[in-house]
Design brief:
With 290 residues, this protein is α/β, with parallel strands linked by helices. It contains 13 helices and twelve strands. An eight-stranded parallel β-barrel has the order 3-4-5-6-7-8-9-10, surrounded by five helices. It has a two-stranded antiparallel sheet with strand order 1-2. It is globular and about 65 Å long.
Length: 290
């Protein structure tokens, strides 16, 4: 994966800053179905997320946790994430306790934190694990949206829009693009401020490929870097939207080459001055190249 960079200082520090991996697509797989983990990995998504939260019934959570951590302990691949339960719940505390004492904690590339309400939720997870791992919180409520900028500052792996729970909490229609415009815009702006990728909510109608493509293009235009998927059949369409053309890739590389050649001084590309927003846009584009 090619990283984007975070920094508010000069070019040298900018190039050395924290690296954040950008994924075009996530594919969720239920934590209670460890027999599907291998199939999910082979489905072509940039990353797979094993879900211990919504996809697992309360009575099955303990067994799903055990099976998942056992499977993860033997995992030797890349780009696999784990959605734990909210750290505000007993199930989430149990997930963190099990992870902290398990070899599986070193196998996951990132953790997804559902129902994050404040930045403190992420601090709790990071301190409980005692190791650095990218955290991707899910904004799923009005309170979370009000704290989006603070959450994004602590979201070392990006932020995922939990539109299903968010729309339900408002009594809004998730399928209506305009109804979710404020939420998406706020999350995109918060992630832009924090220098991390924003990821869009899954498209729930798995049979509507045209609708998936259209809404994904709209999300991309708003600044989202990728999207979650709930069915393997959605992955190709999402990846296609977030895959840049050969011309776009060449242009982005030329921008960064011009900046490198200038050694941090003033640089031009196609007669236009290169500034930080142009560099960041080029880095973001190259981060989606596979």
């Amino acid at each position: 994966m090619t990283p984007i960079r975070r920094s508010d200082t000069g070019w040298t520090e900018y190039r050395k800053a924290c690296l954040v991996f950008v994924y075009r697509s996530f594919l969720f797989v239920p934590g209670a179905r460890f027999d599907r983990f291998g199939k999910a990995v082979a489905a072509g998504a940039d990353a797979v997320i094993i879900d211990l939260e919504d996809a697992v019934l309360p009575v099955d959570k303990a067994q799903a946790r055990t099976d998942t951590l056992t499977w993860l302990g033997a995992w030797r691949g890349r780009h696999l994430g784990l959605r734990i339960n909210s750290p505000r719940t007993a199930f989430g505390c149990a997930d963190l306790a099990a992870l902290a004492g398990s070899a599986a904690a070193t196998r996951a590339d990132f953790l997804v934190i559902p129902k994050a309400e404040t930045a403190v939720d992420l601090e709790i997870v990071a301190e409980a694990l005692g190791r650095k791992i990218p955290l991707i919180p899910i904004i799923e409520s009005g309170r979370a949206l009000a704290n989006a900028f603070e959450i994004a500052k602590q979201a070392t792996g990006g932020v995922l829009f939990g539109g299903v729970d968010f729309s339900a909490s408002l009594g809004a229609d998730l399928s209506d693009w305009d109804a979710m415009l404020t939420a998406r815009g706020t999350i995109a702006a918060a992630c832009g401020s924090g220098g991390v990728p924003a990821y869009d909510v899954p498209f729930l109608d798995t049979a509507d490929t045209d609708g998936l493509t259209t809404s994904t293009r709209k999300a991309k235009a708003m600044g989202f870097s990728g999207r979650a998927c709930i069915h393997p059949g959605q992955v190709a369409a999402v990846n296609a939207v977030y895959t840049p053309s050969a011309e776009e890739i060449a242009d982005a590389r030329a921008v960064l080459a011009a900046m490198d050649a200038a050694g941090g001084g003033v640089a031009l590309h196609k007669g236009k001055m290169i500034d930080r927003p142009v560099i960041l846009a080029a880095e973001r584009l190259l981060a989606s190249v596979r």
